[in-house]
Specification:
6% strand; 7 helices; 2 strands
Length: 140
């Protein structure tokens, strides 16, 4: 039998990790705003590539779908990252699940999100302690 203890490393790194998550969240929200502002420009640029394609309308629909997914992903990961950073900076215990969610959302964002996500997942993983280690040795 094993018991799962709370992650002690996240308490040690909460200030620095919280500042990193707030910075990352601001960056991703700014990215989402930037993507939303330049939607028309991106559409025209992608449309210029489709001049000699037999079915350009289906590819343009795919482009709009992928662009929307990128925009929503950036906004969602930025918002969750901001909340996770604030939870870490205020030392909320309930923020551990939020931090893990933010780490999973940002792992695909190379290079900053991957680095921050993997480090956060490593620090916030629960430690498994065996039952023998939990028992105190008896005095003879």
């Amino acid at each position: 039998m094993t018991a799962i203890a709370s992650p002690p490393l996240i308490r040690q790194h909460s200030r620095a990790l919280g500042a990193c998550w707030v910075t990352y969240g601001i960056f991703r929200v700014a990215t989402a705003v930037w993507l939303a502002a330049f939607t028309a420009t991106a559409t025209v640029m992608f449309g210029a590539l489709l001049t000699r394609v037999p079915q350009p309308f289906s590819l343009m629909a795919d482009f709009h779908l992928l662009y929307l997914v990128m925009l929503v992903w950036a906004g969602l990961s930025g918002f969750v990252g901001l909340l996770a950073g604030i939870a870490l900076l205020t030392a909320r215990h309930a923020g551990t699940a939020l931090v893990r969610l933010a780490a999973y959302l940002c792992v695909g964002d190379v290079p900053l999100g991957t680095t921050l996500g993997i480090y956060t997942l490593t620090v916030s993983r629960p430690t498994v302690v065996s039952e023998a280690a939990l028992r105190t040795p008896r005095a003879a």
